[in-house]
Amino acid sequence: MLQVQWGRIGEKVASGPVMPVFVHAVGRSDLAPFRMPDRFRQEITYFTAVSGEAGVPKLPAGEYWVTLLDAKNFLDEGIVRIVSPLDSASKAEIAFSEEQENWLEWMVANGVEHVRLS
User: Fold this and answer.
1) 25, 5 contact by CB (below 8 A)
2) For the packed helices 98-110 and 68-77, what is the interaxial angle rounded to 10 degrees?
């Protein structure tokens, strides 16, 4: 089935088959993967800590680390702060989607920090 996805202000962001992404808690086979929309493959980087810095382990490609403290702060604030890759002085605060909020709640409720997407 073909679907068109629209951004928050009506901008067309993608078209074609919509495939879900599954977020797996690494080392937690007791948890079922969390289903997210395909665009989450790009969005997850808004929430992640930098691999190899501040107590975050070096991670292989396709794996991500979101500290529990950061996840809780995102939920408390209801926003994510984005820094421009071209100008570190340019920052934006963006409200996250209900899907992202549900994912963060899943992370916090289950004590998950290390994830892999499939």
Assistant:
1) no
2) 140
